């Protein structure tokens, strides 16, 4: 084996390491991108959950306060003539409203998109691209 043959063998050997280094760099880059996407999904979920909780608590507080004041008004107006009806009918209506609100909340919870849906979709596309076609 002369000097030129050894040099070309080294060039191929260096090329293999260069390919492996490029592959590793690409792999790390893809992993980093996917982790950043996962991080964004978690942040979006946290913001959405905080917002929903805040608005729900505010709505519940206002609704509860207004219901108490309306019931007090109804009881005061009908105290002398129909006090049992003044308490019973609003209680039944409130129970009906609670059932409807609970049903709506369950429907909304079931309709919410899956957690990490964007990350899972991207990883599925990556897997499709990396899987050899048969």
3D structure, described in words:
The chain is mainly alpha-helical and 134 residues long. Helix content is 88%, strand content 0%. It is built from 3 helices and no strands. The protein has helices at residues 3-77, 83-111, 117-130. α1 (3-77) packs antiparallel against α3 (117-130). The longest helix has 75 residues, at 3-77. The chain is rod-shaped.
Q: Compute the number of strand runs.
A: 0
Q: Name the beta content range.
A: under 5%
Which series of helices and strands comes N to C? HHH
Largest sheet: none
The mean pLDDT is: 81
Shape: rod-shaped
Helix content: over 70%
Which regions contain 5 or more consecutive residues with pLDDT less than 50?
5-11
**How many domain modules?**
1
Number of helices: 3
The CA-CA distance between the termini, in Å, is 42 Å
* Structural class designation: mainly alpha
Radius of gyration from CA coordinates = 32 Å
């Amino acid at each position: 084996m002369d000097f030129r043959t050894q040099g070309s063998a080294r060039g191929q050997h260096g090329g293999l390491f260069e390919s492996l280094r490029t592959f590793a760099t690409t792999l790390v880059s893809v992993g980093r991108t996917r982790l950043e996407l996962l991080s964004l999904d978690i942040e979006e979920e946290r913001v959405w959950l905080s917002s929903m909780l805040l608005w729900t608590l505010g709505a519940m507080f206002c609704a509860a306060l207004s219901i108490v004041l309306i019931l007090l008004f109804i009881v005061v107006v009908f105290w002398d003539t129909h006090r049992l009806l003044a308490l019973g009918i609003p209680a039944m209506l409130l129970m009906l409203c609670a059932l409807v609100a609970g049903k709506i909340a369950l429907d909304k919870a079931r309709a919410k998109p899956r957690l990490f849906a964007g990350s899972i979709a991207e990883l599925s596309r990556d897997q499709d691209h990396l899987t050899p076609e048969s």
